[in-house]
């Protein structure tokens, strides 16, 4: 029975009306990659590279990084795309080998790609390692916390330089997790190869609520219409430039939210490894036209609770 379930999990996730939705995995290690393949991942939608080095007190070298990226690409095989995100530290994510100065507002300070832009040698080392591992599989590189075109362009330039040095190239995409990026989606889509929405941070920054704050926990809701409008705007901006949009934040692993995400125009879902088979099964039940109707209704609700009520009601009549 387990084997039969794995067989179903390994088949593609296509909606009832024939729309293919890529269901990929969020991973943080080589072991996760192997487990993801077993559970039917069609790729990796997010490798959090900071997770590879949490126990380090010295920075990983270019060779060390090349080796682990190569191993992960090989584990995923030649046909599954693997999105590797550059180091995302700062805010709630400390890294022993990269101590950052204390700040008044760490979530609004040096965080994500800003750390790399301010320390180009660390970013350059990682980008070189990524480029050197590219031939081992189907690599895509993704930047966290992009908030403006000039941040994207600064990193793109660094990457173009190293691509020329190493005589190779890979697609460069960005996370959409800051409201300014969602608002500028179409302009960013002209230059970035793809988008993946980080709903954890996008919710935090849209609602101005700390994602880890115990007294905000019940109110920080990725289904708030304000967040949904950010997602809709992102998908629209991407589609206008023939780019695809994924979601790699926690909302993609929320089975109730999936019809809504597809209705908003999301093309790829990157989810926690254990939920892969459930997410694929969910996608197969859905009809995109109906999902779009649901999404347009949800965008006009007043708060997250109303959206949840709508989803529940929709579920019951399906
Ligand atoms: C997110 O913000 O939704 C995301 C996927 O990135 P992280 O959780 O690693 O900040
Ligand atoms: Mg994030």
TrEMBL record:
It is found in: Cytoplasm. It comes from the Bacteria. Belongs to the PEP-utilizing enzyme family. This is phosphoenolpyruvate--protein phosphotransferase. The gene is ptsI_2.
